[in-house]
Target: Methyltransferase type 11 domain-containing protein
Amino acid sequence: MSRRSVNPGRRMSDGGLPSVGGLLHSKSRSPRVLTIALLVLGVIVLIAYFNSGPGVTVNSREAFTRSEGSCTSEVIQALPYLKKAYGNDMQKVLHVGPDSCTVVSNLLKEGKIEAWGVEPYDLEDADSSCKSLVRKGFVRMSDIKFPLPYRPDSFNLVVVSDALDYLTPRYLNKTLPDLARVSTDGLVIFTGNPGQQKAKISELPKFGRPAKLRSSSWWTRYFIQTGLTENEGPLKKFEQAASKNNYKPDCQIFHLST
Ligand SMILES: *[C@@H]1O[C@H](CO)[C@@H](O)[C@H](O)[C@H]1NC(C)=O
Model:
C-alpha cells in the first residue's frame, strides 16, 4: 500500500507543485485544515503576484509570449524566412504548439496561405478572435501524445513550436513520425535552447511537466535515430535569408524532410 503511493507523490514533485499534493491530502482530514491551507495558498498567490516584476502586470497571454522557452513568437518572427525557404510549399500549413491561434491568424493574413492549428494545451484564456478560429475549425485542441486528427499528407508543411520540449522520448517516438505522416514537403521544428529560461512555474500545470530543453546535438541524434533527415534545400535558403537580414533566432530551428 505504501509502495503504491510512491509514484503519484513523485509525479507531483516532478510537476514542481509538491505543496498542492499536500493540500489535497489535507482535504480528507478536516474542513478546518482545509481552510487554513486555502488561506496559506491565497497568501502564496498574492506574494507571487506582487513579486512578478516591477510594474509588469501582464495578462497570461502576454506572460506566455514573453516567458522564454516560448518559440511560438519565434515562429512569427521567422515567417518571412520560412516563406523564402519553402516558397510554393507554403500553401497548406499546419502549426502545432501553444498559442496556435496567433500563428494561424498571422499565416491567414498572408492571403495565399491556408493555415490550420493544433493547440496541445488549453484554450481557456483564448480571446474572441481565437475563439472564432476554433469555431470555424481552423484551430482545434488535440493531445499530441495521440495521433493527429488528420489524414496522411494533409499539409505541405507542418511547423511545430515548443510542444516537443514537453514530451519524453517515449512519446516523441510516436508523435514525431505522426507529424511527418501528415506533411508532404517538410517539418519545421522550433525548440527551446538549453540556455533559455524555462516556462514559468505558474504555467507548469498547463503543460503537465517542465520543459526539457535539449541541445542541438541531442535533437540531431534523435532525428537520425527516428529516420528523419535534414531538408537541405529549404534549410540553405532559410539560413541565407536569415543571415542576409541579420536574423538570429533564440530558438533552435530544424528543417526535416518527411
Ligand atoms: C525511441 O525509438 C528509438 C529508435 O526507434 C529507440 O532506440 C528508443 O529506445 C526509443 N525510446 C523509447 C523511450 O521508447
Residues 6-51 form one domain. The two ends are 47 Å apart (CA to CA). Residues 1-24, 52-69 have pLDDT under 50 and may be disordered.
